[in-house]
C-alpha cells in the first residue's frame, strides 16, 4: 500500500508563473489536507478537501491559491502568479476518516526565483 | 499569534537517557494533541496522541503527558536511541481529531551514541 505521493519533489518557478502541486492520497483515503511550511516555521493548515468538495479553506490565502480534489485523479494545489514569499515546503496529508490520524507525503519544495 | 509553542529549537541527549520535549499552548479550545516526527526530506510521521480527557498516554518508549491547567504537554522518550534523532512537532486540534491541526515550530532532537 503506497503512501501519500506528492510530485514534483522540487519545483522552481519564476515570479509571475503558475505552480501546480499534485497529491495522490493513500489508497482508500478520501480526505486530503494541504499544509505549508515556511523556513524555520511549523506546518500551517491551508485546506481540507474530500472528493469533489472543499470542506475547509480557512487557511488558504484569499488570492492566487486554489485547490481541488476531483472525482478521478490527484488533488491539485494551484498557485497563480507566484511571488518569492510563496517559496516553502508544501505537504499533503490524507486520512480514511476525518477523525483519524493524518499520513503525510514527502512534500513539494517550491522555490520562486 | 502562535497558539502552539515549542520553545526549545534543539535538544541533545545521550543514547540510553531520557529525552523530554516540551510544548505549550494558548488556546483553551484545543482538545486533542499529537506529536509528529520528521526526518529531513520526508513528511511528518505520526508518533503519539492524547485527548484532553486524559493526562497520560503511553506507547512503547514514548509517553505523552498533558497538564491542562498549565496548558502544557511533554513527550518523553525512554530510552533514547540514535534513530530517534529528528525534528519533533507538537500539534493541536480543537475539533477532537486530526482535522485542521495547529503545529509548533518543532524541536530538533539529536541522540548521541
Largest sheet of chain A: 7 strands, mixed
Q: What's the tally of helices of chain A?
A: 0
Q: SSE order of chain B in H/E notation?
A: EEEEEEEEEEE
Order of helices and strands of chain A: EEEEEEEEEEE
| Spans where pLDDT lies below 50 across 5 or more residues of chain A | none
Report the average pLDDT across residues of chain A.
93
In terms of DSSP E residues, the strand content of chain A is over 45%
Strand content of chain B: over 45%
The poorly predicted ranges of chain B are none
Radius of gyration of chain A: 13 Å
Q: Please count the helical segments of chain B.
A: 0
Write the layout of secondary structure elements.
The complex is a heterodimer of chains A (113) and B (113).
Chain A: E1 5-7, E2 10-13, E3 19-24, E4 31-37, E5 43-50, E6 53-56, E7 65-68, E8 75-79, E9 88-95, E10 103-104, E11 108-112
Parallel strand pairs in A: 2-11
Antiparallel strand pairs in A: 1-3, 3-8, 4-5, 4-9, 5-6, 7-8, 9-10, 9-11
Chain B: E1 4-5, E2 10-14, E3 19-25, E4 32-38, E5 45-51, E6 56-59, E7 62-67, E8 72-77, E9 86-93, E10 102-103, E11 107-112
Parallel strand pairs in B: 2-11
Antiparallel strand pairs in B: 1-3, 3-8, 4-5, 4-9, 6-7, 7-8, 9-10, 9-11
Can you walk through the features of this model?
The complex is a heterodimer of chains A (113) and B (113). Chain A is globular and about 35 Å long. In chain A, strands 2, 4, 5, 6, 9, 10 and 11 form a seven-stranded mixed β-sheet that branches. Chain A is mainly beta and 113 residues long. In chain A, 0% of the residues lie in helices and 50% in strands. Chain B is mostly beta strands and 113 residues long. Helices cover 0% and strands 53% of the residues of chain B. Chain B is built from no helices and eleven strands. Chain B has strands spanning 4-5, 10-14, 19-25, 32-38, 45-51, 56-59, 62-67, 72-77, 86-93, 102-103, 107-112. In chain B, strands 2, 4, 5, 9, 10 and 11 form a six-stranded mixed β-sheet that branches. A five-stranded antiparallel β-sheet of chain B has the order 1-3-8-7-6, with no helix packed on it. In chain B, strand 9 and strand 10 (102-103) form a beta hairpin. Chain B is globular, with a radius of gyration of 13 Å. The N and C termini of chain B lie far apart (38 Å). The model of chain B has no long low-confidence stretch (mean pLDDT 94).
